[in-house]
Amino acid sequence: MQVGTVFPPQTFQVTRADLVRYAGASGDFNPIHWSDRVATSVGLPGVIAHGMLTMALAGQAVACWVGGTAAIVEYSTRFANPVVVPDDDKGTEIVVSGVVKRVGEDGVTQVDITATCNGDKILGAAKALVRA
Amino acid sequence: MGRVYPPTPPYEVGREKIREFADAVSASDPVHRDLAEARAKGYKDVIAPPTFAIILSQNAGQQLVEDQTFGLDYSRVVHGGQTFRYVRPIVAGDHLVTVMAVEEISSRAGHAFLTTRHEVSTVEGELVVTIWTRLVVRGEG
């Protein structure tokens, strides 16, 4: 990996069923992730994906690019915009792209991550440090 | 600020929990499911995806929600950001204890910003991962 290397974008489809599955697996049962009634009552346009699900999917893209999940030694992000997931069979789509920002002499490489949904940035300053 | 909470009870990391979490986040790497594959990579058991540690952070964070003296209104809380710094991956069979500390509180434009740090170690005392969770508490009105 060299500075400036651009990884092939990865696309993830996210449906309501995926949100329910993630809620159960993670233990995060906040109703804004499954109830339109609660989501709209707090000013959201509708049910939104868990930020941590988005972060996890972007992490999978990184794992795929760098040849395995165990290479990731540090991973951080801000949550910039909510991912609204409509109640239909298609759900929505998250596109994750990445670029090598820095290759350290200590063997640690920084990958900067961009994640978008319908063209909006959903993660801010997302980066992974990987030991390749 | 600077408040440190008591260690959580140990959380036992199970193979099936790792598999369930890996399925939920489309984690396809065989090291999450295949013991032989994980051992071939040098781990004593299957390993968890990087964000699995959020489960430990959430469990410890419950202390903050239940702390009456802290006065956190959880209905106003939005997840602002998240960082994981790993010493090694979480492995099935780990018994993990989390110590949470309130690292930073600030306010800006009517909202409060809260950063908690969670140090996740084995019951034997080996640090596995440090987690920073950044929450935004939206102001009223």
List the helices and strands and how they pair.
The complex is a heterodimer of chains A (132) and B (141).
Chain A: E1 6-14, H1 16-26, H2 36-41, H3 51-66, E2 72-79, E3 92-103, E4 108-117, E5 120-121, E6 123-131
Antiparallel strand pairs in A: 1-3, 2-6, 3-4, 4-5, 4-6
Chain B: E1 11-12, H1 15-24, H2 35-40, H3 54-66, E2 77-86, E3 95-108, E4 111-122, E5 127-137
Antiparallel strand pairs in B: 1-3, 2-5, 3-4, 4-5
Describe the structure.
The complex is a heterodimer of chains A (132) and B (141). With 132 residues, chain A is of the alpha+beta class. Helices cover 25% and strands 38% of the residues of chain A. Chain A has helices at residues 16-26, 36-41, 51-66; strands at 6-14, 72-79, 92-103, 108-117, 120-121, 123-131. In chain A, strands 1, 2, 3, 4, 5 and 6 form a six-stranded antiparallel sheet that branches. The longest helix of chain A is centred in the middle third of the chain and has 16 residues, at 51-66. Chain A starts with 5 loop residues before the first strand and ends with a strand. The mean pLDDT of chain A is 95. Chain B is of the alpha+beta class and 141 residues long. Helix content of chain B is 21%, strand content 35%. Chain B contains three helices and five strands, in the order E-H-H-H-E-E-E-E. A five-stranded antiparallel sheet of chain B has the order 1-3-4-5-2, with helices on one face. In chain B, strand 4 and strand 5 (127-137) form a beta hairpin. The mean pLDDT of chain B is 92.
